[in-house]
Design goal:
The chain is mostly helical and about 500 residues long. It contains 19 helices and nine strands. The strands form four sheets. It has a three-stranded antiparallel sheet with strand order 4-6-7. A two-stranded parallel sheet has the order 1-2. Strands 3-5 form a two-stranded antiparallel ribbon. The longest helix has about 35 residues, at about 420-450. The two termini are about 30 Å apart. The model has no long low-confidence stretch (mean pLDDT about 95).
Length: about 500
């Protein structure tokens, strides 16, 4: 059971709630904080104070006074009018992460929502009522208004939600789950949709997967190093200590562990002075991506425990203050950086695949790694596919955060495009996983051609994981099927577990 208090939610807990359907609760201290903030909202409404979002319209309509009798209609209108999403629905794990992060932000007790309304969203999460949230439509300021409005629609009996494997009208999904609908009170619609939780949810899951991919990339690169009889002197700790970048040092240490005991690789290799950059500079490139991913991880950890709506309620002072915590720029820049870092993991991987298949570069192995070239094309087009993916990533890596389009009659005149940045990073992650899967496929073929008897213990275990699911390619076959198996291996974490069982924990 994950206890939400708004301050210490971890990435692992996000992944568990999103993908393993772990149950969630709101801690007792958080419940008290929520109720204190709500009491101040009720007090402000009764006093007739002019407070943005409580007794006024939204955006450019902030100067329009709303009478107390219209506050319920105001909040409902906010949700239905802002539900302007387009495109394919977000996947279920992202939707669950969105719901979790919004609950965690509200649990801090600075948003003014009723506890009962939070409990409705919590019941939906725990019961598997997943709102259908179109992936496109957010400017990333004021937060993720559009997709979060779609999250709220089923709570008020509108929109659509997936429940029990079916996509249903929102009201029907709630009825089947036995969850009563909500009539939103003052501030509640705004409290539910004015935040960065969609960009952060999508990005948080991408970061979680990227942390595993960093280790997997080192394992696959080590297998290629074996096939290319690399010089391990380039991974000497003294070299990397002189530059002092943590990611580079960590990646070099991983390679030393993985290649320890290799009969193919050594501190010196006869007939060779230096390896090509895609081999020799693995720690520098993988390490730079590692440092970038860890920077983004830290930014995401701050954001998933932040309060990002507006206005904010300070019950201890009796104040309601308008600000701009909903602006997604901190996440937009971070997720653009994440996408670039992951694109580079794919770029260097594709170059290593090219060296494996190119008869002028592959250490005397058959052209395109096929024993009977000409009749068979072997891995020729597998490298094409990797090249296409890295080229697509180069387009996707163009930063979203440098763009801004004014909205709400120029009241909201600078926006972050952070949700686009997060979605792009997730797409780049998927492509990078596929490129590394192709390298794994090719490295395994090269090792089989060279002979597995001289492999280091750790790379031999990783090779065994591959061979249990993907055969040596003697004659041309449907390569897509084998590539898909390799992609599943990459995403499963099996390569890491197999290698670590022999060489110890990787960084």
């Amino acid at each position: 059971m994950i206890q939400l208090n708004g301050t210490d939610l971890s990435l692992e807990e996000v992944a568990r709630a999103a993908r393993k359907l772990e149950k969630v609760a709101i801690s007792e201290p958080a419940q008290l904080a929520v109720c204190r903030a709500r009491a101040l909202v009720d007090e402000k409404c009764k006093s007739g104070a002019v407070v943005y979002g409580l007794t006024t319209g939204f955006g450019k309509f902030a100067d329009k006074r709303i009478e107390n009798g219209d506050t319920e209609a105001l909040q409902r209108n906010l949700i239905v009018s802002h539900a302007c999403g387009t495109g394919d629905p977000l996947p279920a794990d992202a939707v669950r992460a969105v719901m979790l992060l919004r609950l965690n932000a509200l649990a801090r007790g600075y948003s003014g929502i009723r506890l009962s309304t939070m409990e409705t969203l919590l019941a939906m999460l725990n019961s598997g009522v997943h709102p259908v949230i179109p992936e496109k439509g957010s400017l990333g300021a004021s937060g993720d208004l559009v997709p979060l409005a779609h999250m709220v629609l089923p709570m008020i009996g509108e929109g659509e939600a997936e429940f029990g494997g079916e996509v249903l009208p929102g009201a029907e999904a709630m009825r089947r789950a036995g969850i009563p609908l909500v009539k939103l009170a003052a501030k509640e619609g705004l409290a539910l949709i004015n935040g960065t939780q969609v960009m952060t949810a999508v990005g948080a899951l991408a970061v979680w997967d990227a942390l595993q991919l960093l280790k997997t990339a080192d394992v696959i690169a080590a297998m290629t190093c074996e096939a290319q009889t690399c010089i391990t002197g380039a991974f000497d700790a003294r070299i990397h200590a002189l530059r002092a970048h943590p990611g580079q040092i960590a990646s070099a240490e991983n390679l030393r562990k993985l290649l320890c005991g290799s009969g193919y690789c050594g501190e010196t290799v006869a007939g060779k002075v230096q390896d090509a950059y895609s081999i020799r500079c693995i720690p520098q490139v993988h390490g730079a991506s590692r440092d970038a991913v860890f920077y983004v991880r830290d930014a995401v950890l701050r954001e998933i425990n932040a309060v990002t709506d507006n206005p904010l309620i300070f019950p201890e002072d009796g104040d309601v203050i308008s600000g701009g915590n909903f602006h997604g720029q901190p996440m937009a820049l971070a997720f653009d950086f994440l996408g670039i870092a992951l694109a580079e993991l794919a770029n260097i991987s594709e170059r290593r695949t090219e060296r494996l298949v190119n008869p002028y570069l592959n250490n005397g192995l058959p052209a395109f790694l096929t024993p009977n070239g000409g009749l068979n094309s072997g891995f020729m087009i597998a490298q094409y596919a990797a090249a296409a993916l890295v080229s697509e990533n180069k387009i996707l890596a163009h930063p979203a955060s440098v763009d801004s389009i004014p909205s709400s009659a120029n009241q909201e005149d600078h926006v972050s495009m952070g949700t686009i940045a997060a979605r792009k990073a997730a797409s780049i992650l998927g492509n990078a996983s596929r490129v590394l899967a192709i390298e794994l496929f090719a490295a395994g073929q090269a090792i089989s051609l060279a002979g597995e008897d001289k492999l280091a213990p750790a790379t031999k275990e990783a090779f065994g994981v591959l061979r249990r699911e993907v055969p040596f390619i003697e004659h041309d076959t449907v390569m897509h099927e084998q590539m898909a198996k390799c992609e599943r291996i990459v995403k499963s974490g099996k390569l890491i577990s197999a290698a670590e069982a022999v060489c110890g924990e990787l960084n």
